[in-house]
Amino acid sequence: MQFQNTSLSAEMLHAIANQNFTEMTEIQAKTIPLLLEGRDVIGKSNTGTGKTAAFSIPIIEQIAKDADPFVYALILCPTRELAMQACEEIGKFAKFKKWIKPVAVYGGASMERQIHALKNGANIVVGTPGRVLDHLRRRTLKLDHLRTIVLDEADEMLNMGFREDIEAVLAQTPENRQTVLFSATMPPAILAITKQYQKDPVMVQIQSPHRTVDAIAQYAVNVPMGRKTDALHLLLAAKKPVSSMIFCNTKKMVDELTEALQNRGFAAVGLHGDMKQMQRTQVMNSFKTGRCNILIATDVAARGIDVKGVDAVFNYDLPQDHEYYIHRIGRTGRAGKEGTAYSLISGRKQELELRAISQYTRANIEEITLPTAAEMKKEALDNLQQHLQEQCGEATPSAEAIQLAEQLLSSGTSAETLLALLLQEQITAATKNLPTFDIPKPIRKGRHSGSQTVKVHFNVGRKERMAPNFILGALVEATGLSGSEFGKIDIYDKYTTVEVPVAESASIIDAMQTGKINGHPVHAKLHEERNGGYRSNSRIGSSRSGNFRRNREYSRNNAGNYNRKKRRG
What we know:
Blueprint: H1 10-18, H2 26-36, E1 41-44, H3 51-61, E2 73-76, H4 80-93, E3 102-105, H5 111-119, E4 124-127, H6 129-138, E5 148-151, H7 154-159, H8 163-170, E6 178-183, H9 188-197, E7 202-205, H10 211-214, E8 216-222, H11 228-239, E9 244-247, H12 251-263, E10 268-271, H13 277-288, E11 294-297, H14 300-304, E12 312-315, H15 322-329, E13 339-345, H16 347-361, E14 365-368, H17 373-394, H18 399-410, H19 415-431, E15 453-458, H20 468-479, E16 489-491, E17 496-501, H21 505-512, E18 516-517, E19 520-521, E20 524-526, E21 529-530, E22 533-534, E23 552-556, E24 562-566
Parallel strand pairs: 1-6, 1-7, 2-4, 2-5, 3-4, 5-6, 8-13, 8-14, 9-11, 9-12, 10-11, 12-13
Antiparallel strand pairs: 15-17, 15-20, 16-17, 18-19, 21-22, 23-24
Helix pairs in contact: 2-3, 3-4, 6-8, 15-16, 17-19
């Protein structure tokens, strides 16, 4: 259904057209007529389906130009970000109705400024439950003439512990109000609220419970342990998203990843709950305006941000709740546009977690491999060649450029050398931000039959409580090789050596440089020989100090089992 075919006012249709909206989403088509009739509504819909417009448009339409300066509508949101976003969107729909004055109230901002805005004729208030309740107690917000109250993301507000605040707010609203509730899920607590505070509500539910993710191309990338940042760098460099969001599970990880990407030349900003409101506002403004095109956030942003034009979402960490996966990737592919989501996974546990997410969302998550740095460099060079060829066919050099070329050629510089030097600058510019590592090959079955081996040295040993299963597990996770491709593992007091195929030694050392074994950071290198043997800090069986039982040699047979041999002094 198109907006133009509705009975909405000319001012509203003009504002909608200004935002390039033509077709209603399913939730809008079903909800707007009911709200215009004054019905109580329960809207069950995932994020990114156009819910804000669904309740904003009817609210704005029902406030007359000559209406008295009272608060006619109150929208409760779970987070400050969502309150600001909703208020901003209401302002866009009311662009040609100058008498509409939306105001956002939320914690972490100046109470005095909010009081001033409320006294200045606010007729639509958007806020978080706690701050709205504060204003009600101060009598700086009065709801005596309230017509409509909207509980947006009601399930999230309950999850955040706002039930008592919501009920306290509802208790101060007129009994004849219109009560609208939107929620992604319908747990018993939500149903209890609808039963107690709504009158003969109409349930509006879009056809597919996971419709939001259906329009999003979803991919999984299996990454060695400790290499997610490098893999993310590869993805960003290869896919070149104009605007992207990256989700982490912890505030610390947001800070670390933001710094890492900034150091690699990416315009990235971080957002999490420990930031002050001024910082959060600055971060969002820089992301919205395009000054920074990468936003790294915790799940506090999954429900609280509505940014247009995000064309890729990255799950650096898998969400701890399957529902949050939907909310995360719902940041892209909004309003009928295509979107892409990538999940970085390391290890068997995360593979199983992603499989469970796929089953829960009923979505097809395709596993893809990352391009190597060499492949990306070749692509960059091919693009450069194509660009230069197009320039030769279309562009005409200036007189100054021709003159300079003639001078250089006349000085004895060959045309080939001159062209090569100029191309080198272009090549450097085209490839300067490419990562320098390659993701190891996929797991292969079977050992390198008859291949030569070399020992790789790790700076952890018995003093760090190392065991062969710790060593082997870390190697398999980090390199993508099968356990059978590694040879004997010798654990000494201060270091460990592992026999590896010569052909794989460089990639194994590279893969382990940023890894950890049993929680200990490791450094890997080729084990050096001294006097015809391998250099060691304490040779096996050499101790006669009474602690010989701790000097053990660990080896593996061809079947991959461990045999532990004790030296008997």
